[in-house]
Each structure stands twice: as C-alpha cells, then as structure tokens.
C-alpha cells in the first residue's frame, strides 16, 4: 500500500518538481491522536461548519497542505487530498485560507505518520506579494515550525532579517557586500545571538536531513554570521556552506562529549545551544 503523505506546500501555484521538495514534518499517528484529544470539540465543530471541504479527505495518497503569503507576516493555509500530479493554479486559488492554528486542529482529525509529512514551497497566482525566497530550506523550516509548533516568532523574524540582507546589492557575489548594505539587520542578528544561532542550526540541520544543501547566498550569509557568533569554533576550511556547517557541527559535538553543560555554556556557548536544538 502506498505511503500516505502530507504535503505542506508554501507557494507558486504552478510550481516546482514535487518530489524534490519532500521533507519530514510533525504528525505521527500517536502524536496525532494526542493532538486531537487536546483540540476543543467546539473548535472542531466550528471549523467543520466553515470549512467542510477540509474534513474527511481521502488520505490514501496523503494530504497536501498549502501555505501562502499575501503580505509580510501574513500566512494562510489550505489542504487538499494527495495526488501524483501538480495541482492546477485554479485548484490552489480556490482554497480557503485558514490560520496555522486552525490547520493544526484540522490535521488533528487525520491519522498521518510523521515520517510522511513533506514541505513544498509555491506561490498563489493572485497574490501580488513577492516577499522572501520561498524555495530556500530556511523558508521551509520556518513554515514547518509555524504549522507544527505554533508561533515560531523567532524563526520568522530571523528569516526576515536574512531575507532583507539578501535583497541587495543584487550585482554582488560577496557576502560582505550584502552585510555592509544592511548594517541594522546585520547588527540585529549579532545582538540576538541565541535566536540567530538557533535559526542557523535549524535551517542547516533541516537541509541536511532532507538532502537539500543550503549552499546559496542564504547559506553563505549564515556561515559568515555563524563564525561571527562563535569565533571559538571557527574553522579554517574551504567548503560549501553546508559542508562547513557539517564539519562545524562535528567539532561542536566533540566538545559536547568531552565537557559538562556548565563548561560548555562558559566556553563554547554555541555548542551548548546546538545541543539544545538537537534535543528538541
């Protein structure tokens, strides 16, 4: 029997190759039943009356959950039965947008294994908003956390800082030029050290997990900021951003194995934060 899948799709209505975007997410059968127990039955009844088309869907080929933006910080969600084809723009445009919290409640009524959840970024054709690049692992990680973990305000705000930095100068290939052009955003990333490190770790780990290495400008900027925030672990290594992070992570894990948490906090705080992220 084919695996059932939730496809979380953030995105361009006529979009990318489906299989390339698969990524694990957050509902196992056990977790799902637990989530359903916590949802107020009155909330579910209200959602069923307003969005009956989102309930009782055939999950033989999984569910496709779409998320799109109409403005900065404005996210809407819809769901359709899974298929082996890309959805038509008209199908996506007909979706009724609900909040992330409402979509979590809707998904709680389905018994979907966690390992079959996937993320596919796209864009609604009727939206004139062309904000951040929705094809990056960073954006994928952000919307997954938004759906599965509630309010990822730290992920969202940090992603928006990186997106602003990446917006110019478009003619440059040097990360230093982008950072210099956005001093305020760069300074904010450095000031919010723990928040920024947690974002960088989650994005690189997510990219590693799903075989979508973060090697574009976003990855280059994250590597630069990572070194700025953790000079004690900086590597003299010529590598892609993803390869650099993988080597950095290995060194941080060695420090975790050799020392206590208290020692890490004092001497290798970034390695301690990574340990917390890996334990989540």
Low-confidence stretches: 1-26, 28-37
Share of β-strand residues: 5-15%
Q: Summarize the helix and strand pattern as letters.
A: EHHEEHHEHHHHHHHHH
Structural class comes to alpha/beta
- Tell the overall outline: globular
Lateral strand order in the biggest sheet:
3-2-1-4
Average pLDDT confidence is: 83
Instruction: Describe the largest sheet.
Output: 4 strands, mixed
The tally of helices reads 13
What is the number of independent domains? 2
In total, the number of strands is 4
Radius of gyration: 20 Å
Roughly what percent helix? 40-55%
Gap from first CA to last CA: 32 Å
Q: What report would you give on this structure?
A:
The protein is α/β, with parallel strands linked by helices and 280 residues long. It has two domains: 6-137, no CATH class; 154-279, no CATH class. It is built from 13 helices and four strands. Strands 3-2-1-4 form a four-stranded mixed sheet, covered by helices on one side. Helix 5 (137-149) runs antiparallel to helix 6 (153-166). The longest helix has 18 residues, at 241-258.
Topology summary:
Elements: E1 6-12, H1 29-38, H2 41-50, E2 63-71, E3 74-81, H3 89-93, H4 100-107, E4 117-123, H5 137-149, H6 153-166, H7 175-181, H8 183-191, H9 193-209, H10 217-229, H11 241-258, H12 261-267, H13 269-279
Helix pairs in contact: 5-6, 5-9, 6-8, 6-9, 9-10, 9-13, 10-11, 11-13, 12-13
